[in-house]
Amino acid sequence: MTPTSKRTETLEQRPVNLDGFVEEWPEVGMVAMDSPYDPAPSVRVEDGVIVEMDGKPRAEFDFLDQFIADHAIDVAAAERAMALEPVEVARMLVDPSVSRSEVLEVSRGLTPAALLEVVKTMNVVEMMQALQKMRARRTPANQAHSTSARDNPVQVAAEAAEASLRGFRELETTLGVVRYAPLVAIALQVGALAGTPGVLTQCALEEATELELGMRGITAYAETISVYGTEPVFCDGDDTPWSKAFLASAYASRGIKMRFTSGTGSEVQMGNAESKSMLYLEIRCILVTKGAGVQGLQNGSISCIGVPGAVPAGIRAVLAENLIASTVDLECASGNDQSFSHSDMRRVARLLPQLLPGTDFVCSGYSAVPNYDNMFAGSNLDCTDYDDWNTIQRDLQVDGALRHVPEAEILAARSRAARALQAVFAQLGLPAITDKEVEAVTYAHGSQELPLRDVLEDLKAAQSVMDRGITGLDIVKALEASGFSDMAHTLLAVLRQRVSGDLLHTSAILTPELETLSAVNDANDYAGPGTGYRPSGARWEEMKRLRHVVSARNPEQEVG
């Protein structure tokens, strides 16, 4: 037996060596962004119709090709845009003197293979430079997961209040037991109101229930409407691009904000990548989203991150998919929402390409709970990383949309969320929330420190919410009747947004003042040094405050 050096023994114990790595295998799609089976870019237009795309005549189009050709590509711009060399388009993306609108004039005419060739010419730093210019909304934002391993609605409410206070503008939950959904969705909505006003909430479920909760006003947005890059995988979900577009229109008709979801690696994971690279297939998903008229996309590999994370240049491909989503003028919730590595260094390396240039939502699911409570299978970051995140913001003067909050404010918000939910449950005739639960959740780190609830009674009550037709207005009335008038008025203002339709604008969020901020009234204006969004003024002063900042004049005094 060959002896092992102490150095090798030490390295073998490093967390990164618990991660999974695999060699490339293009024939099954196990390649990030450079498969020999990817098509070469081409387009041919006759009588205003694309009759050839990426080497394939229209007669051979599958339904993704047809949908993209007919709905996602601007036929008037296609031949002119496709005449440009990929490196020319890449230079337009990187060059601050070329405006975002000029890039969009070109990108709307590019085929999937052409977009792939463009990003293949770019390194990670160049992609980050481009993403800084191409994101839709000027001001970055962030989204969090608020879930419970026990589907405990009291915990979800308290975590939502804290996450809201810390700066997240969207909060998402999901369930271990799907039948718990109505109670947990109500808890998420009530909890968010106890923090900072204007936070939007969603409950990620199968599509029929998710849509019904949205139409009732119990949730405010949706994003778990998945699209895929090959026809067989799309069909495995009993869907087509047209059925997804129809579903999107159902949300839009009720003023409900929504994004599609996709990500590199999904087709490999589902066993039908058609020998194409992960990124090529993801670009097809991006263009299906564009063609469906949806305002945005949750992409960044999402729940498939272990697949690109295992192959060479996989994290580069994840950044490339974020960039392409922004380059075709979609709102981008850029991932960082799924555990993929045991290495803290790799976790941060995966985060920085989105955090540094800024995206519409840097995380599409930062875990606001300890990862053992995260029912989305754990996030790249969780609530134990708050101080690290805030320190990185301060170190680099980069805005990741979060802030340090003194413990007294957090405890007050968590307690108020639990008490408000206690009151709403009482008003709606749902199972009681005890004072003991309120006290426990105020100070708890996770579900392991909370009293157990009567699951059977909760599930009966959850079904009654659906059977009785309870809506967001019933929650407003319950809050008002219980003395939580400010929360009632905030929720009513959020529901009114459904009538205005402003949340359907690309990259829309609500400010704490309950005003819509989107690509319409907060368009990204980056044009090189000295331009675009950068944290300054009151926001920069807020970012400077950390947990243990001390006075320069009196080091014994904490000022954070």
TrEMBL record:
- Please give the InterPro entries that the UniProt record associates with this protein: Cbl-dep_enz_cat, Diol/glycerol_deHase_lsu_sf, Diol/glycerol_deHydtase_lsu
The Diol/glycerol dehydratase large subunit domain covers: 5-552
Q: Which Pfam families match?
A: Dehydratase_LU
Origin superkingdom: Bacteria
Taking the record's annotation, the residue ranges forming a coiled coil are: none
Q: What is this protein called?
A: Propanediol/glycerol family dehydratase large subunit
The species is Prauserella oleivorans
